[in-house]
Amino acid sequence: MKKYFFGLIVLVTLAGYKTDEKYKPDPRTLDRKVMFGYQGWFGTPNDGSGLGYWKHWFRNKPDSGFATFDFWPDMREYPANTQEATHMKYADGSPAKVYSAYHYGVVDLHFKWLQEHDLDGVFQQRFVTELKGRASLKHFTQVVRNVKQASEKYERVYCIMYDISGAGEQWKEIIERDWKYLVDSLEVTKGKSYLHHKGRPLVAIWGLGFDHTTFASAAETDSLLNWFHKGAAKKYQATIMGGVNNNWLHHQNEWKPVYDKLDVISPWSVGRYKDHAGADKFRDTAVVPDLAYCKKNRIDYMPVIWPGFSWYNLRNGKTAFNQIPRSGGNFYWHQSYNVINAGANMVYIAMYDEVDEGTAMYKLAPTAAEKPVSAKYLSLDQDGIALPADWYLRLAGATSQIVRGKASNVSTIPIKQ
Q1: Is the per-residue pLDDT at 12 higher than 60?
Q2: Are 201 and 226 contacting, i.e. CB atoms less than 8 angstroms apart?
Q3: Do residues 400 and 34 make contact, with C-beta atoms less than 8 angstroms apart?
Q4: 409: which of 39, 106, 213, 252 lies 20 to 30 Å off by Cα?
C-alpha cells in the first residue's frame, strides 16, 4: 500500500509535462542550468542551533501579528521532528507549525522535491553579515552541511553564493576567510555535487555595485576577484558569478573593468517591474543589451526571474498585501519566455524558499483553508485560481526543459494543472 501511494504521488507531481528520465545535472558546468536561490535562514527556538528565536519567521511571539513572512508553506510533508508549534491553529484546531532548516530533514525534503521535478539545484545563500556572530554562523554552516549531504543523495548541484548586504567594511576579508574554511574544513569543493564552471568551482557574490553596498568599492571588488582568479592558493581559486544591479551597464567607469573580470553576470530584477508590460520593457532595456554586452566580452549571462512579490508582514503592513500578484503563474511564465527568447541559456529563479518576500517556488499552501485561521498569509489560490502545492516547481521544471533543449519555448504556460 505504501509503495503504491508513493508512486501515485510522483505520478501526480510530474503529470502535465515531459521530463527527462532519471535526469542528473552535470556538476561541471553552469550552462543550460536553471538554479534557485536557497535562503536556508529559517530557524525555530528549540532547533538546537543555539539561536533561540523564530529566525525569519516572527519578530517576537509566533503569532500572525508578529510575522515577517507572507506566504504560508505547505507543511504536510515535513518530518515531525523538524517542526515547531506556533501560537496559531488550523481550522481543525491543530497547531500550525513551521520548520527550521537547521534540521537535515528539512533540506533533505527540499532536495527531494528538486529531484522529483528534474530541477538542477541551488545557489546556497551565505549572508556575510550573518558570519560575524557565533550562533548565526553555526546555523548557516549546518545548512551548508545539510545542502552538501542532500545534494549528493539526490544527485542535484549547489554552489555558495555570498550575499554582502549589510556586511560592512570587512566584507572582503570575511569572504576570503570563510571560503578557506568551507574548502578546508567542510571540503565543499571535493563533493561530487558542488557546481563547477569553466574548470573551477563556482562562487557567486551578490550585491556588487548596489546603492546599499557602497562599502564594497570597485577597487576592493577588483582585489577580491584577483584573489579568487589567481592570487589565492590553487585550491581556493574559483570561477566568479557577480550578482549586480539591473543598471550595471550604466555604472561609472571605475566599475566597468571590474564587471569585465566577472565570469558570469547576473543582474537583479526582483521588484523592477510588476506586470507583463513592465517585464517586456525590462527585457528590451536590460536583458537584450546585457546579453549583447556579455556576448561581446565573453562573459556568461544569467538573468533572474521570479513568481511574484509580497512583504506586507515583513514591512509591518506598510506595503500592499500581495503587492505583485502571481496570476496563477502567468507572471512567472512571461518572464521565463522572455529571457529564453532573448537568448539566455541559463536562468536564476529567485527564490526557492523565500516566503518572507513572497517569491518562494517550493511547495506552498494551495488554499486559504490550509493556512492558520485569522492570520494574514498568502496561499496559492489568492488570485482566484486553484493550483496544486507544487505548481511553481512544475513551472520551473518546464523552464528547465526548454533551457536544456528538450521542449520549445512558448509564450503561454505549457503544462496543465
Answers
A1: no
A2: no
A3: yes
A4: 39
Separation CA 113–CA 13 (nearest Å): 9
Task: Using the predicted structure, report yes or no on whether residue 10 has a pLDDT greater than 90.
Answer: no
Largest CA distance in the chain: 65
> How many other C-beta atoms can be found within 10 angstroms of the C-beta atom of residue 317?
11
Distance CA 82, CA 103 (A): 6
Q: Which three cell numbers stand for residue 13?
A: 507531481
| Separation CA 398–CA 16 (nearest Å) | 10
Q: Cell digits for 3?
A: 509503495
pTM over 0.90: yes
Q: What is the pLDDT of residue 170?
A: 96
CA distance 363 to 360: 8
For residue 284, give the DSSP letter: I
According to DSSP, the β-strands at 157-163 and 200-208 are parallel
Helix (H) or strand (E) holding 342: helix 330-342
User: Could you give the CA distance from residue 244 to residue 231 in angstroms, rounded to a whole number?
Assistant: 23
Band (pLDDT 50/70/90 cuts) for residue 328 is: very high
Provide the 8-state DSSP code for 72: P
Q: Quick one: which of 159, 198, 165 has its CA closest to 179?
A: 159
Do 222 and 186 touch, CB atoms closer than 8 A?
A: no
Query: What band does 240 get if pLDDT is binned at 50, 70 and 90?
Result: very high
Report which of 62, 156, 57, 47 is spatially closest to residue 105, judged by C-alpha positions: 47
CA distance 121 to 155: 9
Q: For residue 169, how many other CB atoms are within 10 A of its CB?
A: 9
| Rounded Cα distance, 238 and 225, in Å | 9
Q: Which run of H or of E encompasses 92?
A: none
Question: So what's the pLDDT on residue 22?
Answer: 84
Instruction: Kindly indicate the confidence band of residue 11, based on its pLDDT and cuts at 50, 70 and 90.
Output: very low
Band the pLDDT of 417: cuts 50, 70, 90. Answer: confident
pLDDT over threshold 90, residue 20:
no
